[in-house]
Amino acid sequence: MADPLWFHVDMDAFYASVEQLDNPQLRGRPVIVGGKPGGRGVVSACSYEARACGVHSAQPIAKASELCPHGVFLPVRMSRYRELSQQIMRALSNYSPEVHQVSIDEAFLEMTGTERLFGSPHDTAGRLKREVRCETGLTISIGIAPSRYLAKLASGYDKPDGLYQVHPGEELAFTARLPLSKLWGVGKQSRRHLERYGITTVTQLRAQTIEHLTRLFGEAGAWYLYRSARGIDPGMYAERTKTHSISSETTFEHDIAGAETLERVLLELSDGVLYRLRQEGGVARVVTLKIRLQDFTTKTARTTRTAPIRSLEELHSTAVELLHRRWTNRRPVRLIGVGLDNVLLDTGPEQVELFEDRGERQRRVEDAVFDLRRRYRGIAIRKARNLGETNR
Q1: Domains of the chain and CATH, by start
Q2: Which of 14, 85, 186, 372 has the fewest CB atoms within 10 Å, i.e. the most exposed one?
Q3: How far apart are CA 28 and CA 373, in angstroms?
């Protein structure tokens, strides 16, 4: 049996890169996508030039404008980003029937046993990168490894436009070369805590016993650090769903404690999930929420609605309800995600009502918007609520 082989494909500074692609005058300039200075929005994405100023995703726009007053602040153009994302995903599907899209700008490809078909993994990844660059004008970074977690780390090893492979048996050597900040999910607070005990490298972290780490971080945090320092999936990608699902999640560069910010992020994630559901012609009743807290504890919640999810408002409001059900202690959040489980083929309305309710009218409007997006690629139609403060 062939050894497991995974690609992790990450689109480099995706939203900002699309803006620089469409407007070449923005290349080399700090681009910040999310809204205008003075608004209450948050940064959805930023270019590497803006990151050099300290700007990061989920940061309040007001703070970003303080750190980078010369930045170019732009509204989110989700339909355009989605158009290019779909084009890239189609390119990925030519290389593997198992493309696991994690978000609009990243995906895993299960490549086990494809060497005879495509050649060496490194050469295959290089060819895929060139195809995406030729077809879209965008760069992607690819990590290759025996597990999804290591592939995720490898894709960020040499960004942007990176390509790196971790061969079986190289897990310890690879992670030893990473700074602590590159271990996925080990943020500033955790690093500060580790530094107080003289732990500043992955090698030093690896030397700690699980008992000692438990005293410092608690059981969940200890096992997360213990596994991740050894290149073992600490639980980020271990879950395998038994039924078809569609989900999207994001890991924050800095932990988020504000409910308003989390709700805004859930709105954007819900929009992407619902669009993919409609693309597939699917229908689902089960909504799931996933959050990972500052101490690495992961919480999930799910609910089954009486009727299928048909609108963004329905999905977002349900996700927000789940958030406040599980996020009762208001501890800072590292990761948040929303999904739909038990996705089935949509065979049409289950019951015809005599009078059309507000929800049905809303669904009809969203159906029309979806049809326009599908027929006229790149058309900029979004619900006003999605825009937040970006156009004010």
Answers
A1: 1-168 (3.30.70.270), 178-228 (1.10.150.20), 246-387 (3.30.1490.100)
A2: 372
A3: 30
Phi/psi at 16 (nearest 5 deg)? -65, -35
Contacts of 23 by beta carbon, 8 Å cutoff, 6+ apart:
none
The arrangement of strands across the sheet holding 31-33 comes to 45-46, 31-33, 72-74
Contact 273, 80 (CB under 8 A): no
DSSP string, 229-263: TTT---SSS----SS--EEEEEEEEEEE--HHHHH
Strands 31-33 and 45-46: antiparallel
Question: How confident is the prediction along the chain (392 residues), in pLDDT tens digits per residue?
Answer: 678 999 999 999 999 999 999 999 999 999 999 888 877 678 889 999 999 999 988 888 989 999 999 999 999 898 899 899 999 999 999 999 888 888 889 999 999 999 889 999 999 999 999 999 999 999 999 999 999 999 999 999 999 999 999 999 999 999 999 999 888 777 777 888 889 999 999 999 999 999 999 998 888 888 889 999 999 988 766 554 445 788 888 888 788 888 988 998 999 899 889 988 887 778 898 999 999 888 778 889 999 988 888 889 999 999 999 999 999 878 889 889 999 988 876 655 444 333 444 455 555 555 555 555 555 444 444 454 444 443 33
Quick check: 20 and 12 in contact, CB under 8 A?
no
Measured in whole angstroms, the distance separating CA 346 from the mean position of its chain's CA atoms is: 26
Q: Distance between CA 74 and CA 132 in Å, rounded?
A: 25
Cβ-Cβ contacts under 8 Å for 335 (sequence gap 6 or more)? 185, 249, 250, 251, 252, 290, 291, 292, 298
Angle at 107 between CA 131 and CA 120, to 5 degrees: 55
Active-site annotation, residues: 106
